[in-house]
Amino acid sequence: MPTEGDPTSLVKATHLIILSTTWGMQIWMSFVSGFVLINTISRHTFGLVQSSLFPYYLYTVLGGSFINLSLYALYHPQQLLNKAETVQIASLFVCVIFSGLNAQWFGQTTAEVMVKKHKIEREHGLGDEVGFGTNIEGYKKLLKSDAKYRRLSSRFKKYHAISMVCNLICVFCNGVNLLYTAGNLKTI
User: How confident is the model at residue 133 (pLDDT cuts 50, 70, 90)?
Assistant: First the structure.
């Protein structure tokens, strides 16, 4: 049941805090932490850290997006939405869908396949390199010689790419919401 009238200051603050915190976390996880980690720790340690952090990250994005969509929808009945509000509610909805898919399926599948790849890589003395693109020849050789590893690598690339696209869609959607929210602020 939609609520009539303006949201209280507490509701507005809650919405803004969750939205900005979620977006900040998305920026950090998407564009900072991975690049720092891949260049400072071994490849397998990087994968372990990412596979440990990402479930929390993905479910936090899902939870924050769901709460923001709920709060926004509560105070913006469909019948009264203007164009800007329609963009905001649609982008929040899109973020809930894509973060849910990522948290429930794509992120988990990527991590599961990565663990299987790491096992094969360890058997061939790979995975202790630090830095992206190191020991490329060793991985190429393994791809040529091991059909199972080749299938896992292909599957990993597919799910990792889908997960990244889902994540970037959510970053974009929350960024759009921040822009529209900032445009509606009376003061700063």
Answer: confident
Check if the beta carbon of residue 47 is closer than 8 Å to that of residue 156.
Answer: no
Q: For residue 158, give both structure tokens.
A: 């597919």
CA 116 – CA 152 distance, rounded (Å): 8
Report how many helices (DSSP H) and strands (DSSP E) the chain contains, helices first.
7, 0
pTM: 0.91
* Residue 57, domain extent: 9-183
- Give the per-residue pLDDT at 110: 97
List residues bridging with 42 in a β-sheet.
130
* Cβ contact 18:68 at 8 Å: yes
Q: Residue 47 to residues 57, 62, 63, 153: CA-CA distances in angstroms?
A: 15, 22, 24, 14
- What region does 162 belong to: left with phi over 0, alpha with psi -120 to 50, or beta? alpha
Domains: count for the chain: 1
Q: What is the C-alpha to C-alpha distance for residues 72 and 58, in angstroms, rounded to an integer?
A: 21
If phi > 0 it is left, if psi is from -120 to 50 it is alpha, else beta; for residue 133 that is: left
Tokens of 1: 């049941």
Query: Which of left, alpha, beta for 8 (phi over 0: left; psi -120 to 50: alpha)?
Result: beta
Bridge partners of residue 130, in order along the sequence = 42
pLDDT 10s digits, 163-178: 999 999 999 999 999 9
Does residue 76 carry a pLDDT above 80? Answer: no
